Amino acid sequence: AQSVSQHNHHVILSEAASLELGCNYSYGGTVNLFWYVQYPGQHLQLLLKYFSGDPLVKGIKGFEAEFIKSKFSFNLRKPSVQWSDTAEYFCAVNDSAGYDFGNEKLTFGTGTRLTIIP
Amino acid sequence: IAGITQAPTSQILAAGRRMTLRCTQDMRHNAMYWYRQDLGLGLRLIHYSNTAGTTGKGEVPDGYSVSRANTDDFPLTLASAVPSQTSVYFCASSGSTASSYNEQFFGPGTRLTVL
Predict the structure, then answer these.
(1) Which residues contact residue B85 at a Cβ distance below 8 angstroms, ignoring those fewer than 6 apart?
(2) What is the extent of the structural domain holding A65?
(3) Which of B71, B94, B102 to mutate to test the interface with A (most CBs of A within 10 A)?
């Protein structure tokens, strides 16, 4: 079964610091990769996604992630964080190889709580 | 506004009681999902449905059942609630289009406490 690891459980940074959150997955075949964000008291929202092509993907709010297939990784980055980035971040993987209409099951990591100090 | 609605927002339930969590989407997505979110465990898939009339088991299906009578609704039922089912429950949906292939959209969640 697919598994997703997020090694950083809680990260505390000051505003303007750079951010990198780790995500590793176990499946060796074709994968689709996602980062979701959950702001306090809110539901999950998509930050960015990777399906194919350029391994460096840009998302909303200045976030980006790089897919490194050889390392089974999809780390999330942001060059300069803001207080409003305080949230929980989830990496997720879908291992339905190719196009499988209506079957986009996701496996989530356990999440990383990010706290930004003003 | 298009999206997913869940009801109730929160509920406190006595152990042994039956409870149905409601989920409705208006995006005409084929697939729908139920997750539970627990501290330190992230989101775990309970049940899913690829299309109306079909359902499947996820990672943690025991104690839960679902039905998918139509495209829009995907209720989750706890036949006899137990304290370990205390959690936040999220419904999600997905549908492949040119701009949102494989993306799941999430509802606001239901916070359930079983005493």
Answers:
(1) B36, B63, B78, B112, B114
(2) 4-117
(3) B102
